[in-house]
């Protein structure tokens, strides 16, 4: 089974608790104004890559000693939930945690009448932390780490991160900038005034 991936960062501290392997999937059914990853929305982006669940799992486990978990973000992870659930199950068996950002609300994901429910349920079963809901630019916030807008909720689907329930980090969101082999990559949660466009000027 393959997953269509837009980007991955093997070691990041900007996409959830601790050091994590982050995977941005390609394709999202939503079009939230202000989405910070518009290039990841089309399901047909030619620069996206296909990777098998086994290959991705193997790659993640290569960092097993350096990370505490993986983060699936996008794009919309729930659009490829069946394949991601297989990866999540394997990395959790190795003791890693799984965090998922979804534009769907948990209530929508738990709709058993939806034809995609079995795959989504499979991924939810392998998820420790779910951040749900579409990004709302008019409700943007910068004081709850990793959360983009006030409507988005954190769901603790296992007891792995229960210690964060009462003390979710309030530090400002961060970004990471990498410049390697002539390519500038950015991840994290930029302040609304910091856009890819003005960060491109760093290359000049
Ligand atoms: S759900 Fe997320 S990835 Fe999809 S459009 Fe909204 S902000 Fe962008």
Question: What report would you give on this structure?
Answer:
The protein contains five helices and nine strands; from the N terminus they run βββαβαβααββββα. The protein is an alpha/beta fold and 204 residues long. β4, α2 and β5 form a beta-alpha-beta unit. It is globular and about 35 Å long. The site of iron/sulfur cluster has 13 residues, from loops.
Features:
204 residues, two-stranded antiparallel sheet, binds iron/sulfur cluster, globular, 19% helix, 25% strand, TIM Barrel, alpha/beta, 5 helices, 7-stranded mixed β-sheet, disordered C terminus
Mean pLDDT: 90
What structural class should be given to the helix and strand makeup?
alpha/beta
Strand order of the largest sheet: 3-1-2-4-5-6-7
CATH topology-level name: TIM Barrel
Q: What sort of overall outline do the alpha carbons produce when their principal axes are compared?
A: globular
Main β-sheet, in a few words?
7 strands, mixed
**What are the secondary-structure elements, in order, as H or E?**
EEEHEHEHHEEEEH
**Number of discrete domains:** 1
Task: Kindly report how far apart the N and C termini lie.
Answer: 41 Å
Strand content: 25-35%
Q: Which percent bin holds the helix content?
A: 10-25%
List each distinct ligand once. iron/sulfur cluster
Q: How many E-type strands?
A: 9
CATH class: Alpha Beta
């Amino acid at each position: 089974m393959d997953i269509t991936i837009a980007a991955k960062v093997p070691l990041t501290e900007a996409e959830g608790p601790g050091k994590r392997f982050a995977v941005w999937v390609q394709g999202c059914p939503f079009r939230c104004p202000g989405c910070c990853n518009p290039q990841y929305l089309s399901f047909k982006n030619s620069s996206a890559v296909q990777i098998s669940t086994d290959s991705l799992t193997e790659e993640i486990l290569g960092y097993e000693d350096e990370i505490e978990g993986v983060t699936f973000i996008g794009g919309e992870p729930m659009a490829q939930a069946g394949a991601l659930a297989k990866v999540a199950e394997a990395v959790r068996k190795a003791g890693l945690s799984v965090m998922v950002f979804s534009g769907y609300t948990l209530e929508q994901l738990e709709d058993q009448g939806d034809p995609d429910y079995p795959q989504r349920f499979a991924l939810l079963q392998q998820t420790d932390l779910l951040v749900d809901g579409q990004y709302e630019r008019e409700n943007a916030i910068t004081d709850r780490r990793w959360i983009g807008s006030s409507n988005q909720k954190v769901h603790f689907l296992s007891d792995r991160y229960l210690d964060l329930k009462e003390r979710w980090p309030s530090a400002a969101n961060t970004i990471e900038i990498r410049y390697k082999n002539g390519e500038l990559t950015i991840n994290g949660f930029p302040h609304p005034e910091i856009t890819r466009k003005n960060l491109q000027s760093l290359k000049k």
